[in-house]
Amino acid sequence: MNKILLVEPDFPIPSKSKNKCYFLPIGLLKIGSFHKKLGDRVKLVRGLKVKKDIRFIPDRILITSLFTYWSEYVKDAVQHYRTLYPSAEIEVGGILASLLPKECKEFTSCDKVSPGLYAEGQAEQVEIDYSLLDTELDYQIIHASRGCFRNCTFCGTWRIEPEVSYKKSIVQEIKRRKLIFYDNNLLSNPNIENLLDELTQFRLNGSQLSCESQSGLDGRLLLKRPELAQMLRNAHFKNPRIAWDGSVGQKDIIKEQINILENVGYKANHIATNIFIFMIFNYNLSYEEMCHKLDFCRKWGVLVIDCRYRPLNLLRDNYQPRLKSQDENEYYVHKGWTDKHVRSFRRKVRRQNIAIRLGLPKNKYIVGVESKYIKV
């Protein structure tokens, strides 16, 4: 029997968000469950704790990594826990370890790097052990597939999980009424119709489910199979998210995807809007074109989730969102963009989303917005 200490580094996540579905250390919870089945003792710590709070002497320390640009926090965790437990083996896994294994080993000075899925994917076959957390969750994480057949240049999924796999059924896994799907491309599952039928019919203690796809829906697949939109609605999926990564010239295609969702009851241009558009910025499209795309979203009444691009091999990100300005050498600014552009675009998105949530007319923004409404 081994004693395994699972560590989530002290990432810069607000305390109120640590147990939100998009920051939960789901990988560690699966690894913990896997080791418990092997008969090992397991403890999870979040942040840099002291011995008197841990009350556990591990043989092995498994530290997760998240974004590559948060590598400093992983290094701090390795150093901290090596000082506390010098005889324990320290292993780093997760996104940083998978995308940049050599750099991870050198930068953090850990004993071992574990790229890819843990234990050759065996940890994916066990139930998630939520009891390792110090709080009760009102939702459950579900994976109906792993990997993605798209090879988007800015995404690391297909690099970390090159083998795509799919489940035929998930009802046996459901333990909570609220499900958050972590699939990177849920609709690409060849069994998607069966899965959605299951979710539509399933009841937990007499109550229907509430579902959400955290990574969004592939709008291109919706165009090919628009009947899936009604099936998603029947399966109680809320807040559908689609991506607009391409040029403003794709506006008609994006609007068609929005129409498909609206036709089955999802809302846009409404005070309670629940259609979202992912937009990657600080990337190949210019600031001016991104603002033009934003104006179309304002016209359509869809909320925007802005995603600031950072290269996959970036080990540090010194962007300070609370500052009014920074030198462009202090963090990653894409060619053709400036620090002013980055901050202005984020500001436009926030103000525009507020205007939509408040139900303001399409040509009205909150005070201070710089973008002009473009009538099209």
How would you describe this structure in keywords?
Rossmann fold, alpha/beta, TIM Barrel, 376 residues, 2 domains, disordered C terminus
Q: What does this protein structure show overall?
A:
It is built from twelve helices and 15 strands. By secondary structure, the protein is α/β, with parallel strands linked by helices. It folds into two domains: 120 residues, Cobalamin-binding domain (Rossmann fold, 3-Layer(aba) Sandwich), CATH 3.40.50.280; 227 residues, Alpha-Beta Barrel (TIM Barrel), CATH 3.20.20.70. The strands form five sheets. A five-stranded parallel beta sheet has the order 2-1-3-4-5, sandwiched between helices. A three-stranded parallel beta sheet has the order 6-9-12, with no helix packed on it. It has a three-stranded parallel beta sheet with strand order 13-14-15. Helix 7 runs parallel beside helix 9 and helix 11 runs parallel beside helix 12. The protein is globular and about 65 Å long. It starts with a strand and ends in a 19-residue tail after the last helix.
List the helices and strands and how they pair.
Elements: E1 3-8, H1 26-37, E2 41-46, H2 51-54, E3 60-65, H3 71-84, E4 89-94, H4 95-99, H5 101-108, E5 112-114, E6 140-142, E7 145-146, H6 157-160, E8 165-166, E9 178-181, H7 192-201, E10 203-204, E11 207-208, E12 210-213, H8 219-224, H9 227-234, E13 241-243, H10 251-263, E14 276-281, H11 287-300, E15 303-308, H12 339-357
Parallel strand pairs: 1-2, 1-3, 3-4, 4-5, 6-9, 9-12, 13-14, 14-15
Antiparallel strand pairs: 7-8, 10-11
